[in-house]
Amino acid sequence: MGDPKRVLSVQSHVVHGYVGNRSVMFPLQLHNYEVDNINSVQLSCHTQYDFCTGQVLSLKDLETIYDSLKRNGSNAYDALLTGYVGDPNFLNKLAHIVSDIKAVNPSCRFYCDPVLGDNGHIYVPKELIPIYVDSILPLADVLMPNQFEAELLTGCKITDEKSAISCMDLLHSTHNIPTIILSSTELPFFDDQGHQMLATYLSYRPDLAVNHIWGNANSHETLRIRATFPKLGATFFGTGDLFSCLILAYFEKDCSNIDMTKVLYKIQCTMQSVLKRTLEHADKLNADPNCKMQVSDRYELRLIQSANDILSPPPFSSIRVTSL
User: Which regions span the lipid bilayer (predicted)?
Assistant: First the structure.
């Protein structure tokens, strides 16, 4: 095992539970990455608990932290990962930081999870949307919005596979982003028993790749992949953060020889394994009449218990990956 690549992750942090950086650091470290983190907010827990308190990292504190990293020569990263940011000024400064780090290491890749909302509900100030569009997206090497976030960033409505592909094509052409991944879409896909399936879409344009080529460097055709997987009957938090860090973990391991179809399958197998283990644990607690835990606490991701599956996920016949 060689020297670990260095990653900077900028997103939320919770003292208890697994969202944001708490959902990211353990899986990346398991995959042999050295992870530094800047916490855009520090909260006691995620916001669906009965009580949630904490602090927001100020713009001044962000500037001070990064300036110290820079002065110490500690800002040479191999990859950047960003997630939840709730302040427009913070996001503007983050764009400058990404540019500065890319200047230090031009081969550094920027993985952007533009956390804006989900299921038709936006949970950040709307002022963040034009900042993402104008300042953040043009810097991204890999963009990982969910269905709702992709709609907010493009103005396109995603109702079927054709509109999902059109949305990704627009993000490619407008912002020159080589890799677009719609992390989760709810479109009319069903298994043989009629159960709802969710879909992840990946679109890669090698002609837009400046500092990386995934797989075949001679190909100039757009690669498109769809992965469908079961929709589980529960609400989880931190899943998007986990998905985005797994994308980084696998993509950075061997960029030139990556098989995106196999990688996407492995990632979805890991996700299903973690979520099924989490759901089984929650079901046991729900069946216990003496359990006093809050519902949100019962559904915290079982990351530590899933360490083996994060590294080597078991296969799931219910997950289907198709080249389009």
Answer: none
230-286 pLDDT, tens digit each: 999 899 999 999 999 999 999 998 777 788 999 999 999 999 999 999 999 999 999
Nearest to 247 by CA among 264, 265, 226: 264
| Angle, vertex CA 23, rays to CA 71 and CA 283, nearest 5 | 165
Give the global pTM: 0.96
Catalytic residue annotation: 241
* Strand duo 121-122 + 179-190: pairing: unpaired
Superfamily assignment of 5-323 in CATH? Answer: Ribokinase (3.40.1190.20)
Query: Which H/E stretch holds residue 36?
Result: strand 33-43
Q: Domain residues of the chain, as ranges? A: 5-323
Would you call 272 helix, strand, or coil by DSSP?
Answer: helix
Supply the mean pLDDT for the chain: 95
